[in-house]
Specification:
132 residues, alpha+beta, 2 domains, three-stranded antiparallel sheet
C-alpha cells in the first residue's frame, strides 16, 4: 500500500526572491486547493505543470494573490511551476512505481534457486526510471 503523498510546488531554478520559498509554496498550494480545484494529496497530480490545467486568467490571478503583481515575466514563471510529491520518484515525487527486474540473482543460501533481481523502478505517473 502506498503512503500518503504531500504535494508541493517545486521551486523555480535560481530562485532569488526575498521571501523564502516554503512560505510561497504554502500560499500557492492553499490557493490551488481553495480556488482552483486541486485535490490535496492526490498522487495523480504529481508532475503537473500549472499552465496545463489553469487558464491564462487563473494564472494571472494566482500570480497576483501570491506575488502582488501580474508582470508578464512573473506570470510566465508561475505558469511553469510544477506540482511534486514527497514520494520516491526522483522526477515527480510519486510513490506509484513498479519494479524493473532483469539481472539474475544467484541463490543466497542452500536450497534457494535464485531468480530475477530488482535493478530499478519505473514511475507509473511520469515514466521516470530510477536504476540502482
Amino acid at each position: 500500500m502506498n503512503k500518503t503523498i504531500e504535494l508541493s510546488i517545486k521551486a523555480p531554478r535560481g530562485w532569488a526572491y526575498n521571501a523564502p520559498w516554503h512560505s510561497i509554496n504554502e500560499r500557492i498550494m492553499q490557493l490551488l486547493v481553495d480556488k482552483f480545484g486541486l485535490i490535496p494529496n492526490y498522487e495523480q497530480q504529481c508532475g503537473w505543470q500549472l499552465d496545463s490545467f489553469l487558464t491564462d486568467d487563473e494564472l494571472r490571478r494566482l500570480t497576483l494573490h501570491t506575488f502582488g503583481n501580474t508582470i508578464p515575466a512573473m506570470v510566465k514563471m508561475v505558469s511553469e511551476l510544477v506540482i511534486v510529491g514527497d514520494g520516491d520518484c526522483p522526477k515527480c515525487g510519486a510513490n506509484d512505481r513498479h519494479e524493473i527486474t532483469g539481472a539474475y540473482r544467484p541463490a543466497d543460501r542452500e536450497g534457494d534457486w535464485g531468480g530475477l533481481a530488482v535493478i530499478g523502478y519505473r514511475c507509473n505517473i511520469c515514466g521516470e526510471e530510477d536504476m540502482r
